[in-house]
Amino acid sequence: MLRVIIADDHPIVRIGQRVVIEANGKCKVVGEAEGPDDLLRLLEITSCDVLVTDFAMPGGQQADGYGLLSLLHRQYPELPVILVTMFANVATLRASFAHGARAIVAKSASAKELPLAIRAVSAGQTFVSECLRVQLVEAGTGDQSQQPQLSGKEREVVRMLASGMTVSQIAARVNRSISTISKQKSTAMSRLCISTDVDLFAYARSCGMVP
């Protein structure tokens, strides 16, 4: 029987996940956590075969989803991690795989797809919810585990924007026109399938471009 730990800051979500996970009689929830620090303490004392966790849980030292994923991957490299999330941003999905996630399940589809994801990762495979997989395909990602590739200048512009500089300031710094910088920003966002500055800055932080 597969031992599963679940982590989510909403008790009602954990109750629902436990019911779904244990319904087929092949899995047993051996622990629950309500936040990142709680999860890390639980993993130290409880062995499991699969971890099902929310992407971003508030509070604690590891509230950032990417930071938690990276830490889990370093400390428990053989533990399959399934993200159950409301995030539907393609760049977030790509980066999550790059940071060690083995499966991503949309919360809207968790009841029917969570058991499929557990079965997949326990067999050494990856899994993406159907609704999210459609977005990845439409975005032309190919292998979803690969992060999108930016040119050197695009990456430079994204890094400067995320560090707090404006398009005009970047243009003056690198001696390029404002229109050129704006176009490189737009092209980078298109490659990343990002539509807002907030998501762009989040991507830059997740990839280590800025602290």
Automatic annotation (TrEMBL):
SUPFAM superfamilies: C-terminal effector domain of the bipartite response regulators, CheY-like. InterPro entries: CheY-like_superfamily, NreC/VraR/RcsB-like_REC, Sig_transdc_resp-reg_C-effctor, Sig_transdc_resp-reg_receiver, Tscrpt_reg_LuxR_C, WalR-like, WH-like_DNA-bd_sf. The keyword Ligase does not apply. CDD domains: LuxR_C_like (cd06170), REC_NarL-like (cd17535). One of its GO terms (biological process) is regulation of DNA-templated transcription. It holds the Pfam family Response_reg. Residues 3-122 form the Response regulatory domain. It comes from the Bacteria. Keywords: DNA-binding, Phosphoprotein. The keyword DNA-binding applies. GO terms for molecular function: DNA binding. Residues 143-208 form the HTH luxR-type domain. The modification 4-aspartylphosphate is found at residue 54. This is Response regulator. It comes from Pseudomonas gessardii.
